[in-house]
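Subject: complex prediction, re-run

Hi both,

The earlier run crashed halfway through, so I resubmitted it with identical inputs.
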Amino acid sequence: MLIASRTGVRIGRAASEAVTDVSGIAEVARLAGVSKSTASRALGGTGYVSEETRQRVHQAAASIGYVPSTSAVSLATGRTQNIGVVMPYVNRWFFAEVLEGIQQVLLAQGLDLTLYDAKPGTEGRNRIFEDFLARKRFDGLIAVGLEPDHQELDRLVAIGRPIVSVVGSSNVTTVVEIDDDHVARRATEHLIALGHRDIAFIGGGLSTHWAQVDRRRLDGYLNAMKTAGLSDHVRHIYSDVTLPGGYASAVDALGEARGRPTAIVATCDEVAIGAIIAARRLGVQVPSDLSVIGIDDHEFADMFALTTLRQTPREQGRVAVQLLLEHLDDPTQPPKTVRMTSQLVVRNSTAALDPRASAVAIDGRRRGGL
Amino acid sequence: MLIASRTGVRIGRAASEAVTDVSGIAEVARLAGVSKSTASRALGGTGYVSEETRQRVHQAAASIGYVPSTSAVSLATGRTQNIGVVMPYVNRWFFAEVLEGIQQVLLAQGLDLTLYDAKPGTEGRNRIFEDFLARKRFDGLIAVGLEPDHQELDRLVAIGRPIVSVVGSSNVTTVVEIDDDHVARRATEHLIALGHRDIAFIGGGLSTHWAQVDRRRLDGYLNAMKTAGLSDHVRHIYSDVTLPGGYASAVDALGEARGRPTAIVATCDEVAIGAIIAARRLGVQVPSDLSVIGIDDHEFADMFALTTLRQTPREQGRVAVQLLLEHLDDPTQPPKTVRMTSQLVVRNSTAALDPRASAVAIDGRRRGGL
DNA sequence: TTGAAAGCGCTACCAC
DNA sequence: GTGGTAGCGCTTTCAA
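This time it finished cleanly. Structure:
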């Protein structure tokens, strides 16, 4: 096709451009026998147009397959009909799910989605904050798990467009999130209720990005342990917040039977699943030797029979768009925080503590303590 | 805003727009003591401007933090400085990797990325092809594993913008891909060289989307088997092309020792890893009882010691952008096909066939044959 | 209810 | 080298 155009492009080009040229709103107006303004009104649904003209204009538009030029519309109205989405990763379950939720409602609304992949510590991230966002090629912004630093936050505010954060813990923008502290606490309490005492927390620490979320979940774990009088049993296994990260850290931490926790609270399902795979590899039976609980309800959770606290990032994405659109309609609305609920899904990775295992664990602890 | 504007916004509007107005190129020009045209030339880098004026203009621009209006620029130049990316999934390793590769070079080039998530069989996909793409909010398009049907392909061509496909098998657009047939053949040959005869292929079939890629890989497997005189040993285990899909199908297929293949070629690493997890679950030792080879070199491959044929989707994404930009520079270029190489990565999921296992397998086959 | 005309902010052509 | 000026394609007053 392109090859063909090689020989006689001049003509092809000219012709094709002529076709495009001619199919503007002016042509629609001409065909319908009205003025540009009337055509615009008829098409846009704004202002008074007689039903008859409206139909005539619409037919004319349809007949030439009229599609308004987005840049012309944007220039004239100040609206881009486009939403920007900034996130640090797109290759992790949570982020991909949120993105799909966002995309889904944006498509239904006829709005475009411009993606900014702001991976922490990259040159690309700098450029996004320095150059890309300033272009304001969007009517509003959704920031997913961004955790911007001070400077970045300033930039964000400076663009002067409505922003909704998903997992943002921001007091300046509207936020959609779950109560991380509370969720981690419930996860820990589930284990405590099963009789576990030597419960470790795995996650956060190696990676810098999830710091805030991880910190809150760690706090939830610590609070639950403290409340149960188990502060002495607290243990934090540092791990990258990825499946292989959880695997690697768990392989290290679960190697010897002595001192091994009887249960693990993972900062998210990916880490939990990594830990389960590690346990299997080490011959540690889940859940009889080791209980594991996660947070997410990841798409792999079912396959690993993982007990977890379900969150629905896709829904969070949908809600984020909704809030953003509301704000676009009425910019006077103050920022709000929407807390999504989360539900315990019990599968088969957690079980009541085996008395013998307990004895070993307690023994291990004693030895460690002495 | 809209509500407000009805009552008395006139003022608010005017004021706020005035502020925006003032930081346009006209203001830059005024500050630099030159005309708008000169300012434009100085900023755009096009046309003759004395070094001195250029500096003065740039300073003026910097002093007020001038950022050109993208819609105005687009309208005037016909260029959007934006690239559209259409893909059916964003939550699968391959697609996420390609997307990151694309984003990476786009960011470096100062180009925006508009994402269209065209999940097969959804209303959203229809809207993308019917409405969104027709808006041409982009200078070019990258289609990743899209496998459009006839009608969709027509739409694609109709938008009249350059297109590059990643995994597209298209004769109308430029394509970046690996040689799926060849890669699957090499995977199969690796197993044959290790002495395996009962080699099954797992993948494709349940899902419709990957049909073409899967078909090509299946063909590669079939060809290798045929060449080795093993056509009688051919077996296709149908599986969804996901990790849980591979797991579920493998659990079904590997249940009984009799008739169990001694080796598996998976259509991709996700399926391969699913199969490995299933094998472990069933007490089938990998690689002593079962060899598994994949295609991808997925981020989990190392953790499962998976032997695989590496492909680098991120690089494919980068190359796709490069090709697109070249085409944008010189639209007369005919479409081409770029084949990325792929390399065998031997880890520990494949091993030479154990004579005893072979006997059992052959026995099983015999029984099946009678 | 409709049409004329004035921009939206920028580029690019054409004189100077 | 530089400065007018005419659009890019659409929306939106303002009059009619």
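The CA atoms of residues 259 and 365 of chain B lie 6 Å apart.

- K.
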